[in-house]
Every structure is written in structure tokens, then in C-alpha cells.
């Protein structure tokens, strides 16, 4: 978020951010949405954003995508482009004229690669979800609100607002209705194809507006507890699970924003920690404060860890593990950009080890200074393989491949479904599977592709398959 309100630090120059970007020399800049908070004059505010960050945007490759405030709404459920008629737009769709929405997307996304499927949605609004390959890192750029359905009239109302659930005793299953959509079939198809294509790629990353969970408990002010927020991508739960399942099949992690609260979560579908990691970056200038403050202590924490960390259920009963959180401090006053938990995120990818490190920095620090410290809980490092944390039921024979760093795809014969696709590191790989039976394994790519059929899964190790390419 990039609030323009002086009370939120929006009038403070962005020089500290620009100077730190220059010190870090990133390979890619990512602005995840809400670059513009002026709900009626996007063009003027976009030019102001350019004045603030033009020095680094012109020198570093940059991805920007719009979110709700950019298109003039406090929240958005794009609902495939329909027109919204309710205050707050909780019925789904866009409140501003089509021409306004198109101008926003033209300004903020015309630099991206061509969309995967440019077919317009309702009322002629375009799409921009796409794939970017940069430095052997494969990025899926997702529009996680454009196809999402609005809650008003679709689910039982649980509070004074259609998008807020304040009743802690409600049944989460009651809102996970079959007609609710999150990414939509078009984007799920894109993620499926993207996950299987490892051309010139070693690591995969999803970039979108926000993370796939309810990532906060306190909203707006101290004491403003909200049981569940339907603006978050924790709802609908079935859509959330399908999105995460698509990403973990590619061993991808998720990098996003919007929550006004920096977090690292390890997501789960059936069990805690069986899926991807996400990093939600903080706001540049924070309009609307949020806190991660679960009422119950997290389970399976490390000794001495804060009770807010560990295994939790969000307000929709999605499984997630809190790894790091940068909550605002509760007191009033003080430095606006410290008490409001503003800052920026950095991701470092080691392509040799496939380790990924998340770092979250506060505003107004020199990241090159010896005494500079990120927010507590960061840096956090994990390995690419940790993005599919699901426990194996069995394994296939260990593959010994004649050439290193090959693409391996595992297909379940019974269902014909791709279990996962990955460019392995080195020459050996023992594929894990989640059901007994036989599998087809594809090794290599292009003209050097070998298919192994009828490979049996076993709980016993020691078997090796040699693959000559």
C-alpha cells in the first residue's frame, strides 16, 4: 500500500526506499498493487508514483500490477468484469467506468509480457495474467481478484458488512459455496500449464496482489477484531486450495502484498505445512493497520517462540503456519512509519542451492549499515523442495540421470494427473508420491526427453533407475 494520507506517512518522501533499492541492486522490482490511493484521479497519482520511484524504475526491470485502490475501490471482487452496484462493491465487479479500469490497467501493466489468454472478460475489460522468465526464474503473474466472486447475496451474511464475519461460532463450511470463485478456471489452466513448463527455469515464483489465507485478526485499530475477512484470499476455501495445489505442483513460492502487514506463512491444505511458503510484504505507507493476533497459541512452535507463531487455523479454517510477523506497535504517536509497520520486502534466490531467503526491512534504515536490522523474525530461509511439504506415502526408485539438472515430471497412471514437475538439482532424485501404484516419469526436455512407464511406488528404498539422455 502507498497511502497518500499525511496521517499514514503518505507525505514523507520515498527517498529512503529509493536509496535502499539502489544499494541492494535488485534483479527485479515488484510493486504488488495499491500504487495509487486516489480513487478518482489515477493518472495524476500514477505520475506522482513515477516521480517517487522513477529513478529506480528506469534502471531496474520492474513488474507492477494494480489492486483495488488503483481502480478506485476500497475492496474488489472483480467477478469477471460485471458492474458493481453496492457501496463497497461486495456484490462483485467494478464500480468505476470501464474506460477508467482500462486506463489503470494500460498504465500499470502494458510493460508486461503478452497475456496468456487475452480474451476480454465482461464489458470488454482486458486481462494481463502472464508468465515472465527472468534470469532462469519463472514468474507467474496472477490477477487474483479479477475473477473472484463477491460475497453479497452469495453467502449467509455474518455481520453488519457482507464481507466481514464477526461471529466466531459461524460454520466456515457455510461460506464455501460451490458457485464462489477465486482465480477462476482460466487462471487455474494457466497455472497448470506454467507449472509443467520449465524451459530455461530453475525456480518458480507466483506474483500476485495478496496471499491465500486470512492473514490478520485485528483490523483498523487496536481492539478491532474481525473473525474472517472475505476480501482476503482465504475465501472461498475451495478456490484457495486449488490455487495452492497448482503452485505446489511446481514447487513455487508466493510473493504478494495488500494485507498492510508483513508475514511469512507456510500453507497447508490437508495438513499443516504440506504446501507452499508465502511472503506478504508490508505497506510503503500504511493506511489501514492490521495485526496477526490469534486468540490461541500456535501449535508445534520452536522453544521460546512467540505464541502468535506456529500452526493455526485462519477464520475460514484454512491451515497455515505463522513463521514471521511484523505487527504494528500498539501505542499511539511516535514515528508514523515505525508504529504503522511500514517497510519493504526482499527475496534472495540462490540458484546453486535452490535456497530462498525472505527479508523484511522497516522504513528509514540504511540496509548497508552494519547495525541495520530487519524486522524480528527475518531473514527466513527455506529450500525450493519445502514448497511441497506433503508427506510421502511411498517413493519411486531413485533416478540416476546421465546429465545434471534435468526436468522430472511424475504422472499418476490411475488418474492421469501430473503429481508435480521440477527441475532437479544434480544427477540423482528420488521422487516422492502420495499414493501407492504405478507412475509414468518423464525425464529431460525437448529432443532429450525420456519417458519411463509403469514405474512402481514402494515404501522400501534401495532401487535405482538409470536414465541415459
Written overview of the protein:
With 469 residues, the chain is α+β, with helices and mostly antiparallel strands. It folds into two domains: 6-387, Purple Acid Phosphatase, chain A, domain 2, CATH 3.60.21; 394-467, Immunoglobulin-like. Helices cover 14% and strands 25% of the residues. The chain is built from six helices and 26 strands. It has an eight-stranded mixed sheet with strand order 3-4-6-9-11-10-14-13, covered by helices on one side. Strands 21-20-24-25 form a four-stranded antiparallel sheet, with no helix packed on it. A three-stranded antiparallel sheet has the order 15-16-17, with no helix packed on it. Helix 4 runs parallel beside helix 5 (237-248). The longest helix has 16 residues, at 42-57. The protein is globular, with a radius of gyration of 22 Å.
